[in-house]
Amino acid sequence: MDVQWKLGHDMPDGSRRTSEITITMEADEDPDGYIVGLLMNQRLGDFLKVFAQTGAFPAEDELEALDVLMHFAYVAHHCQARLDMLQLAARDQFGLGWGTIATAVEGNRSTVRGQILAARNRAAESGYFWDQNGLHHTDPATARTAALMTDIALGDD
Description:
Order of helices and strands: EEHHHHHEEH
């Protein structure tokens, strides 16, 4: 995936040239269509519009405000879910300690530990687990056992 941006600048006539963001992806970089879905449903656009407007709510009426709020929450929720899985992989696949992960995500160690344990349980319920060899998919019972074995092997640093 290639992301390029050109920052806007003031023109001699006093106008402002707009900024431009270009995202170029290969088909295998968004195999489940998450990014395309965010773009087509205007969720990513609304997220970026709100994210950039500190102190302002970019809506003209109640319906637009509700749309912007729903789109922002959708993206934020999916970002949090992805962060939970990344933290889990950092712990179970790469063996990073609770404190190291907490520092990386600018979080509290006990909160991050709780997020990782909850993510591990959710993944195992769907038959997924990580170990030093990466992500695996199997039946939920085997995944729960494997996740527990990984947890035991890593210890409680």
